[in-house]
């Protein structure tokens, strides 16, 4: 991934993007997580077969798009110039 992650807005810790299954294991995606306080973003999924099966075809993402989307979500700061 070529997007640098900002430090955690809560504790200042470093962040990393992790790939994994959703809590029920039905599809895969990415979430950003602080390595110190463990706060995370919501998971951005890329398993389009699952989304299509559940009638969500308008939000399908490739694996790369999902990874970039979760990094962008982590880096978004309320009230900041890039918000």
Entry keywords:
single chain, 83 residues, alpha+beta, three-stranded antiparallel beta sheet, 2 helices, 19% strand, globular
- The assembly state of the depicted protein chains is single chain
What is the mean predicted local confidence, pLDDT?
82
Give the biggest sheet: 3 strands, antiparallel
Number-wise, the strands total 3
Shape: globular
Which residues sit in consecutive blocks of at least 5 with pLDDT less than 50?
A: none
Radius of gyration: 14 Å
Instruction: State the separation between the terminal residues, measured CA to CA.
Output: 21 Å
Determine the strand fraction and express it as a percent band: 15-25%
Q: From the helix content, strand content and strand pairing, which structural class follows?
A: alpha+beta
Q: Total helix count?
A: 2
Main sheet: strand order: 1-2-3
Number of domains: 1
Helix content: 10-25%
Order of helices and strands: EEEHH
